[in-house]
Structures are given as structure tokens and as C-alpha cells.
Amino acid sequence: LTGRHFPKRPKHLLIVEAKFDGEQLATDPVEHTDQPEFATELAWELDRKALHQHRLQRTPIKLQCCVLDPVSSSKDNIGYIVLDLRAAQEKKQAPKWYPLLSNKYTKFKSEIQVGVVLETDSKALVDGFKAKEAPPREGKASALLSGLDPKSIVPVLNEEEGCHQIGPVEYCRDYFVLSVTIVFATKLEQLVPTTMKLPERQPEFFFYYSLLGNDVTNEPFTDLINPSFEPERASVRIRSTVDVLQVYLCAQSKLQIHLCCGDQSLGSTEIPLSGLLKKGTEEIDQHPVAIEGAFVLFPPNRAKQKLPQLPLDMAPTVGVSVILQRESLSAQLVIPLNAPSGPNQPQEKVLSDVKGKTEGLQQRSQNAPSQVNHSSSTQDEATESEVESLKFEKGMKVKKKADNGPVAASQPIPEGASSSSEPSAQKIVIPAASHHFCFSIDLRSIRGLEVGFPVNCILRYDLFLLILFLLITVSLFFIRKNMEVFLPQSYCAFDFATIPHQLQDTFLRLPLLVELWHKDKTAEDLLLGVARLRLSNVLASEKTRFLGSNGDQCWRQTYNETVSVTAAQGSGSRIADLSYAITLEDHGLCVGAGQQRHVPHTQPHCAPEKCPEPRETLEYKAALELEMWKEMQEDIFENQLKEKEMVHMQVLAEEWKKREREREALVKKKVAEYTVLEEQLQKTLRDLDKRERQLFSAESELQTVKKDLQAEHERKLQELQDSVRRAREECAHQVELERSKIKQLEEDKLRLQQQV
User: Fold this and answer.
1) N or C: which end of the chain has fewer CB within 10 A?
2) 72 phi and psi angles, rounded to 5 deg
């Protein structure tokens, strides 16, 4: 009917191609606007037997949306829609909006309004196209090759060429690639029996199938309600011919895909492979042939368990794509194994090992740097050990905002860096012409997240100041899509001493890389993206003058910017925006630069008349500094406890919500099952009531017939008795008449005798 959420592309046309059972129809080209109007009806004619066969085999209707360029006459696919033939009913239904799958317009959620209906055609079929019969059943293609038994064709692994040989070696010399991809799954919680209790720890679920004797499993997942897994393509190389492959696929059993938990199968579906080569060599020579669609998963032993049939919208389904193509075509389509797999590209598995087992050569996102474990251990030592924190204060001061987070540890400070005074004796050499600098970084907010799942974020960056190396981590925070989060405890300031041109050279040469990580409690941390901060921008900003703590004239330069966080995998597209501010303060020349400063162990001697005030003594200052340090450490410890409490409460809340969703799904499933059982019970009760009424009516009718028969019997008996009585009376009367006649004749005889 129409579309929505399309980008406007002048001088381009849109067309929708519909493919069903090998027959392809297309709409008229329309303008490529944001709401294209197709308004086209595409129809196929077929009898009820073929329709029933297609429904049993779940033949899909695939709609391919293409863009036409009238100037270059090129046609590009931008997405597709797969329709389930079983959803079509004879009664008219309201059209639905279907999103484009594998949409190339990634920034647009393009949708097409489609209506599917079955119409009974009372007119005679006219000459024209007609949908062909369903794919041939097992053994029907055996007539293609005389003398070749389909059951004798078995795949044999060829170790040298890394392929499976199907058919005679001297006859089968063409190379093919058979690929199976599990794309998505829905309503999987319907496969869990209602008697199964929810485990304390969620088990792992995965899909399993066997491809030419190779066992294949996809990446495990734990959430049945919203299953999330990367599409994985399993491919095998085949050496054969189209005719032999057609015989082999027709003779083989269907491809079975199981949803498993451990070694137990929760449900399975079957995909017939005989429909791949139903049109012979013409189609596969031009383009790959495929079977794609959403297939319903059925629990094992449904008949034995006497499970009710679920409605179509509640049935668990799995989206599968099976593609067969010549190797020359597959070389242009298969993703290289050494290339990183993007979010929309299925991971690749090549199945051609010697033992017939699955060898998953797939790319995983394991880009975590080697310093992660080291940095985390260093952070723990810095936060838990007072000695390490004191050493850090000797080397470099890292100042945070009010809620001081974990203090980052650093290596011992070398020559050329500033040092705070201590009661112990030290010798520190500061180069001449060195300035006292204070450099601060404030990561303010992150927004515009373009990731398809909620993220528990942490930000990390490696700060390389001269020859000092620091790993700074921003506290954990939670962010969703289209949400802006102001970062807590993200301000850090660094005091150091160096020569100005050396600092300028370092800022121009080394950018600051801020990494965005997703922290998962059940898996390894995942690097989502990296933002590049050019520190040299602060050197070009305007200088402002201010007075330091000792009254000296100082200069400050500040730079604010929002940069894009690019994806760490794939094409490097933008996944978020990071706002930050950096400040550089120049406090002038360091006091005592180029000299050695010696602080003795002993206290300075002063004359009685010039004795300093108690508050000015080194002991008082050291005690005051120690008390302030203790108070600061207490605040840090309390803030850390609050943060940990918040994190734990958030984890508990998420776990509680997850368990609630699981229980709600199970309750919905039980309600659906009970509703189906209630409908069946109501139907049985109606049938029993109907049968009871029929029996009562038949019994009443039987009683009436019995009474009628009894009355008829009595009437007949009475009539018979009356007939007998009348017959007897008539017989007696006849006897009397005969007797009277005999008497009369005797009298006549006597009279005549007397006369004679």
C-alpha cells in the first residue's frame, strides 16, 4: 500500500519485488519520497491442494525493496520483508506495517504497509501463469539421473581440497557453497515447561543443527524473553553438479534445528532442503538460491505430552536463511574471515575440518588492551593501601571533585617533575626554566548513544604527560539510547613541572584517547568505542590572567568541545557524543629551579626572641596536614561505599526486574495454555450437552415409537380376534344352512319316495 520513514532521494525510484515459490512479481516504480505510495496488488493463483502443501512447508513470501536509478539503470536492494503464508486468511484483515530487514538506510526505520488476503476465485482459470506445485517430495528427482540410487549418494570429506564430495568424482567437478544462518528468534519462553522452576543462575541456551555431518552451535545466550545473539553463518564447500545435488537434497531428510539447554532439546523445527534446486541449473547459474523465513519451533513429544496448540502470534519461531550458490558467486558475498564482523553482518563459520567436527573460525570482539588487568590491580592497590597513596602524593597530585573516586596510581616521579615537601630529607633537581603547570580534564557528559542495548559504561583514558604514564577510570554509570548522562567524578587535575616547549611538543604529538567500555558482570568487558581528544587545542585558546595562592601572576587557558565516539569495530561510525573541558594553568617559574633542595631531618633552631608561633611550626603543619588527609580519606571511603552500594542496588534491581519479566512471561504462558484448555473444555462441554440433548430427543422418540407400536399391536390383536370370531360365526351359520339344506333334501327325498 504505502511506506513511511524513507529518506527523500530525488531522481530515484522505488520498486517492490515479491517472490513466491519461484514466481516473481513487481510493483510499478514510484517516486523515492519519505512516504512512497505503491498502491499495487500482486496476486498468485493456485488450488487448495497446493495452498495446503505450501502452508505445511512454510513457503515464505519475500518482498524485496529496491532503488532504481533511471540515469545509470542500476538497481540496489535496500531491504526485504518476509511474510508468513499461514497468516493469510480468507476473511479480510487490516493491513500491517512491516519494518525492512537489513535496511541500508541505517538512520531511518523504514516500514511498508502490506495487506495479505486469500480470495476464493469462482471464475474459471484463464490462460496465464499459475503458482507451481509445492517442492517435490523425497525420491521424485531420482529420474534425473538414470542408474543412480539417491540413497547411495553420501557426502565424502576431501581433505586435500577442503570440501565435501557429493556424487561420482569423475562426473561432479563444480564447486558450491551451502550456508545456513540463524538470524533471530522470538517467543522462546513458550518452549519452557510450566513445571520447570527458574534456576538461581540462568542457564545458557543455544541453537544446534547438523550440516553434512558437522555439528554446529551458535553463540550461547541466557535471555529467552529477549534473545540477543549475533547472526552466525555456517558454510560448507561442496564439489558436485546441479543434477546430483538436486537428487541428493530431495533424498535427504529435512534440516533439523534444535533449541538446546545443555544436552536437552527444548524444541525443534524442520526445513526442507528439496526446494533449493527445484528450477534446475538456470536459476543457480544467475544468482544464489535461498530458503528464508520464520519457522515455528515445536517441543519434543508434543503428542505424548498432549500439549495444546498455541496461537500463531504466541508460537516460538526462529528465523533461518539457507543459501546455496556457486563458489564464483559466493566469493563476492561471503565476509572474509580476517575482517571484523560489524553489528549487521553475520559471523562466519567454515565447516571443512578433517574429523567432520565444527571448526568455528569466527571473529570475536576481544579488543581489550593488555593493560586492563594491570591497571585494575594498580587501582585496587592505590585505593586500599595508604603507603601507595602517599607515594603517589610524592610523585604527582591528582585532584578530584567533591566525590573523590579511586585515585589512579602512577610510577615514581623522575627528575623534572614537582614534589611536595616532606619531613624526611630529600634531594630533588628541577631543571632551569621549568614552569609549574596545572593541567585538568573534566569529562562532562555523554549523549546520543547509538547502541541497541542498555550499557553500563565506564570511561578510561591513558594520560601521557612527558615521561609519566597514568591510567584514569571514570566511575560506572548507566546509559540508554537517546539519553544524556552527566558523568560523575570525572574531574582530574595534575600538577607538574616541565619546560614549556617540551609540554607543547607532547600535546601536539600525542592525542588523548578516551575509551568507552561496557561492563558486564557475566562476561568480559566490551570496548564499544574510542574518542580522540586533541590536547593541542588548549594551547591555541585565549589566555586569561589570575592571581595564584601566593599572589603571583598566573595564566589560564580553557577549551570546551564535543567530540564523536567512534565504534571500535566495523566501519568506525559514530556511536555517541562526548562533551569535555580541558584547562592548562601556568603558575610561572618554579621556585628553586636548577638548584638542589635539601630538607634536613632535624628541626630548625631559632632564638628565643624570634621563636615562631605554634601554628607556624613544621610539627603543627604536619599534624594538620595528616588530619586533613585522614578526613579526605574518610570522605573517599564513604563515597566509595556509597558508590558500591548504589552499584549493588542497581544490580539487584536489574536482576529483580529480569526475574519479574521471566515470571511474567511464564504467567502469560500459563494463562495462554489455560485459555486454550478452557476453550477445549468449553467445546467438550458444548459437545456433551449437544449429545445429551440428542440422546434425550432420541429416547423420547423411542418411547413414542414404542407406545405407537404397542397400540398398533393391541389394535391388530383385537382386529384379529374380531376376525376369528366373525369367521367362526360365519362358519357356524354356514353349517346351519348346510344342515337345513340336507334336512330339506331328505324331506324331499322321502316325499319323492312316497310319491314313487
Assistant:
1) C
2) -95, -5
C-alpha distance from residue 452 to each of 228, 347, 449 (Å): 10, 18, 9
pLDDT band, residue 50 (cuts 50/70/90): confident
Question: Residue 308 has what DSSP assignment?
Answer: P
Cell numbers that stand for 428 in this block: 630533588
Lowest mean pLDDT, pick from 56-65, 616-625, 700-709: 616-625
pTM of the model: 0.36
Q: What's the pLDDT band for 596 if we cut at 50, 70, 90? A: very low
d(CA 12, CA 677): 54
Grid coordinates belonging to 244: 546430483
Within-domain flag for 564: yes
* CA atoms of 430 and 415, how far apart (whole Å): 7
Residue type (1 letter), 525: D
For residues 426 and 599, the answer to whether their CB atoms sit within 8 Å is: yes
Same-domain pairing of 31 and 171: no
Do 295 and 177 lie in one domain? The reply is yes
Domain identity same for 443 and 580: yes
3-state secondary structure 619-682: HHHHHHHHHHHHHHHHHHHHHHHHHHHHHHHHHHHHHHHHHHHHHHHHHHHHHHHHHHHHHHHH
Q: In the numeric block, which cell numbers belong to residue 479?
A: 546509559
Give dist(CA 355, CA 159) in Å, integer.
10
pLDDT digits (tens, 9 = 90+) for 497-536: 888 888 888 888 878 888 888 887 777 888 888 998 988 8
C-beta separation of 351 from 367 below 8 A: no
Is the CB of residue 579 less than 8 Å from the CB of residue 445?
Answer: yes
For residue 452, how many C-alpha atoms fall within 13 Å in the half-sphere facing its CB?
A: 9
Report how far residue 719's alpha carbon sits from residue 506's, in angstroms, rounded to the nearest whole number: 135
Q: Are 244 and 172 in contact (CB under 8 A)?
A: yes
**Number of C-beta neighbours around residue 304 at 10 A:** 7
Instruction: Establish if 218 belongs to a structural domain.
Output: yes
Cell readout for 633 is: 580519606
16, 84: one domain: yes
Q: Do the Cβ atoms of 347 and 232 come closer than 8 Å?
A: yes
End-of-domain residue from the set 572, 589, 606: 589
CB 391 within 8 A of CB 385: no
Question: Do 96 and 217 sit in the same domain of this protein?
Answer: no
C-alpha cell at 749: 327325498
> First CA to last CA across the chain, in angstroms?
132
Q: What percent of the chain has pLDDT over 90?
A: 22
Q: Are residues 93 and 213 in the same domain?
A: no
Contacts with 683 (C-beta within 8 Å, 6 or more apart), sequence order: none
Number of domains in the chain: 3
Nearest-5° angle of CA 201, CA 207, CA 211? 150
- Residue 47 within any structural domain of the chain: yes
Helix axes 386-395, 371-384, angle to 10 degrees: 100
Amino acid at 214: N
The dihedrals phi and psi of 378, each to the nearest 5 degrees, come to: -65, -40
CATH number at residue 509: 2.60.40.150
- Number of helical (H) and strand (E) elements in the chain, helices listed first: 9, 33
User: Residue 556 contacts by C-beta under 8 Å, 6 or more apart in sequence?
Assistant: 543, 544, 545, 546, 583, 584, 585, 586
What pLDDT was estimated at residue 692? 94
489 and 474 Cβ atoms separated by less than 8 Å: yes
- Sort 123 into a burial class: Cβ within 10 Å, 0-12 / 13-18 / 19+: exposed
Q: 162 with 282, same domain?
A: yes
Report the C-alpha gap between 478 and 518 in whole angstroms.
Answer: 10
* C-alpha span between 528 and 443 (Å, rounded): 17
Last residue within a domain, chosen from 543, 562, 589: 589
The reply to whether 281 falls in a domain is: yes
Are 104 and 159 found together in one domain? Answer: no
Per the CB < 8 A criterion, the answer to whether 176 and 238 are in contact is yes
